[in-house]
# Entry
Amino acid sequence: MKTAIVTGASRGIGAACAAELARNGFAVAVNYRVNKSAAESVVNAVSAAGGQAFAVKADVSAPEEVAAMFEAVKERFGSVSLLVNNAGISHIGLLQDMTDDEIRRQLEVNLMGAIVCSREAARQMIPRKSGSIINIASMWGEVGASCEAVYSACKAGIIGFTKALAKELGPSGIRVNCVSPGVIRTDMNSELTADTLRELEEETPLLRIGSPEDVAKAVAFLAKEESSFITGQVLPVNGGITV
Ligand code: NAP
# Structure
């Protein structure tokens, strides 16, 4: 059985990815930062459906916790075959009002976290000459969002990182892609008012907000053998918004 690590899998898009990958035959490490009970619910749902999963705590912005997580997963399920860099945080507000700590936290979780997790994954994948890394970017990393300038910068960085790492790891048989979601119904968007959500739906050609499962299906496609000649790509899952 192949092993997947999904970061930030206790809720939202990550939880949907964990469930979908387990259905696709992966043993899944469900990473979380603080929400242990939510991560355990994801694990229980996977087990109830006949899959394999376990919850593993690590803050992706702390390199030593990331290294310990990769070791724990290796001990439990063997070397990692698939990494989904999904953990992320948003910050809505004007740049001039952001503190140094707020800016640093965005960069450390959204960008550095994915980079450090990818480094650990590469160390396990390169000797085996196979593996896949899927990064969760954002439409805002492609077009930029007002009041989310640092978040947008992180996600644009994720896209650049994906393209570069795909070139670096391709000769080792490792694929690196990213999925770029539009607006998805999760806790991250819980601050958006009903009116704003309605406006966003109206601006979307498919006239709806996305679900975590919409993103998870795209992740599962990129994880499959069927996509074995696809690397360095950005797959938008945004209901048809032109980016
Ligand atoms: P969410 O519902 O807010 O869930 C965030 C997840 O990330 C939780 O599992 C949380 O764990 C985890 N997390 C946060 N900080 C972490 C850290 N430092 N280390 C490890 N895990 C951490 O978010 P979401 O909407 O599903 O977003 C998932 C990804 O999709 C993010 O990268 C986000 O930027 C991206 N995205 C989302 C949307 C959208 O509209 N929702 C659109 C485009 C892209 P705890 O439960 O333990 O806190």
Observations:
- Residues 100-125 form the longest helix (26 residues).
